[in-house]
UniProtKB/TrEMBL annotation:
<keyword id="KW-0804">Transcription</keyword>
<dbReference type="InterPro" id="IPR058582">
    <property type="entry name" value="KH_NusA_2nd"/>
</dbReference>
<dbReference type="GO" id="GO:0031564">
    <property type="term" value="P:transcription antitermination"/>
</dbReference>
<dbReference type="GO" id="GO:0006353">
    <property type="term" value="P:DNA-templated transcription termination"/>
</dbReference>
<dbReference type="GO" id="GO:0003723">
    <property type="term" value="F:RNA binding"/>
</dbReference>
<dbReference type="InterPro" id="IPR025249">
    <property type="entry name" value="TF_NusA_KH_1st"/>
</dbReference>
<dbReference type="Pfam" id="PF26594">
    <property type="entry name" value="KH_NusA_2nd"/>
</dbReference>
<dbReference type="InterPro" id="IPR013735">
    <property type="entry name" value="TF_NusA_N"/>
</dbReference>
<dbReference type="InterPro" id="IPR015946">
    <property type="entry name" value="KH_dom-like_a/b"/>
</dbReference>
<feature type="domain" description="S1 motif">
    <location>
        <begin position="141"/>
        <end position="206"/>
    </location>
</feature>
<dbReference type="InterPro" id="IPR012340">
    <property type="entry name" value="NA-bd_OB-fold"/>
</dbReference>
<comment type="similarity">
    <text>Belongs to the NusA family.</text>
</comment>
<keyword id="KW-0963">Cytoplasm</keyword>
<dbReference type="GO" id="GO:0003700">
    <property type="term" value="F:DNA-binding transcription factor activity"/>
</dbReference>
<dbReference type="InterPro" id="IPR010213">
    <property type="entry name" value="TF_NusA"/>
</dbReference>
<keyword id="KW-0806">Transcription termination</keyword>
<dbReference type="InterPro" id="IPR036555">
    <property type="entry name" value="NusA_N_sf"/>
</dbReference>
Amino acid sequence: MKSKDAKIFLEALDELEKEKGISKENLLSTVEQALLAAYKKNYGEEENVEVEIDRETGDVKIYEIKTVVPTEDLYDAAVEIAYDDALEIKKRVKIGDTIKIEVNCEEFRRNAIQNGKQIVIQKVREAEREYVYDRFKVREHDIINGIIRRIDERKNIFIEFDGIEAILPPVEQSPADTYRVGERIKVYLAEVEKTNKFPKIIISRKHEGLLRKLFELEIPEITSGLIEIKAVAREAGSRAKVAVYSTDSNIDTVGACIGQKGLRIKNIVNELNGEKIDIVIWKESVEEFVSAVLSPAKVISVEVVEEENTARVIVDNSQLSLAIGKNGQNARLAAKLTGMRVDIKTLDRVEEGE
């Protein structure tokens, strides 16, 4: 490694340490280990060798490490040296000592700087991936704010979060949303996975977790634990149902979620661009809960068939369309919220034996 190149190399490591927080010493140790492996591959695995990079000059030096043995003994020249030969290298030496013998390998030294650069580039990429993973992992299952930077021809939305970009694909976009470059946007960070390349960051505007977190942001009683969100079911951009519960009988659970003059729920609806939200009280009795979830329809009775995980619901003829909802939406959301199959029939059909 030429002294000029070596100095530039060390300066580059100093800059990396300042800008990215990557330890210069760790990088140098990594480069030394990689150069050692390269040397052994080219010049022999059996030799006991060290590669050192001078921390002041950046010069690369290769040393053979050998144990001093009696001159008259047979010895392994790859890892041992005769006492008489050792005395020529180091005056004060004893049998059993180890000595370092510098190896003059100019070709290897010339290539060391280029190899070192490649190793550092790889380590920096690894460190950046780790940094991105750690930074996003702590925000997993939370709302994060970003700026829309571009939209490609496949309608992927590229969103920047403090210098890091993630993609909101069409499958995670809400039909009610309009996306414009330069606008700020809230998304739900659903999952962060380590991969062999860049961390996989899954963000969403459709996820039920987004609605749950918006409730937590707008309703202090949820954050404090006075009100608990028991379940959320959502068809993004259209309608959602949220089941809430409080052990404190003095709290108007639904009223707290709606807020004074409906301000709290209005803020949530506005963030979701008009998505309708039904708030229902969670009931320990499955029958009562299913009945409440099918609101605004009035239910005559609910029979739970546990082995089929089904709730058989009976309503009056006039309530059937309300219970099922437009295109079956109310019934679907009820099934999602309760985790059961919801079978809705009219009283007339039941009496007829259907």
